[in-house]
Amino acid sequence: MTTTAEAATLTVTVEEVVDRQIRLSYELRNTGERPIYLFNRLARFGPTGSPTLDDNAVYSAIEGDTLVLSRQLVPIPDGIRVEMPEVPGLSEVAPGASLKQSLTVVLPLQERNPYAAGRQIRTFERRQVRKLRLVMGYIKSDAIPTLMETQDSKGTVYKTVRYQDAVGQQKFIKSPDIAV
Asked: Residues near 119 by Cβ (< 8 Å), separated by ≥ 6?
């Protein structure tokens, strides 16, 4: 299923649903005239707090019978104070180019939100999920004052931005709900 937003088109395909596993692929195409940066490089954090990029990491929530998966810069909710905001790594998509990726979700899946501390984390069972929606966050290159490089615990170098520079500039593109 394909959807269009400002400067981007997103196509999501559910490749396989086997037992408790959902494998999907997506393609984000830059339809604008300048590069865009996709917030798609999420990490897992080890006991020392060091990030390790994970190709299957995704934020997750459930809305009714729809599993909402997202790769985005999650805004810090009002009333919550954090020492260090979680900022996913970025992938650059040049004008006219596409980025294709796939991910596998295994159910039951725990809700993942970087600012869920202090509240109960829900677990989603396969029987609860009838549909899936993918939400991608991105930022236009001309909205980024400073692009930085950093590395994860395995030495993988990736691009990132400061939270305060990006949170108000982020755009979203959402797939339609897809039956699973």
From this structure: none
